[in-house]
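Task 17 of the worksheet. Students: predict the tertiary structure of the chain below and write it out as structure tokens. Keep your answer in the requested format; marks are given for formatting as well as content.
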Amino acid sequence: MKLGAPKPVVWHETKELNNNFNKTSMRFHKLMILENVWGVLVGKKAKFWVLEGVLFDGKGGKEGALEVSVKNSAALHDLKISEAKLLQDINKYFDKPWLTKIIYK
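Model answer:
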């Protein structure tokens, strides 16, 4: 280590790691997890259900709403049927339930 260089950070517990994240970085990490989980859970249906994003603003009760573009009416019907199970499966990857509903585009 060079003289005057900052001391490297060593974490011993996960609670120390969480103290270094602010609200924006936590949202970013949740989005990264969501992007990876989406492909695994949706599989081949990903070409019909395109993940657009998540609403964070909380306006109109849309906090935690997942935005999904749907290619056709058959895919929309399939997504509506699968919505509750899909949200439950996605929320398993987070410490507390994050996504509450799906908004279709």
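Marker's comment: The chain has a mean pLDDT of 83. DSSP finds three helices and three strands in the chain.
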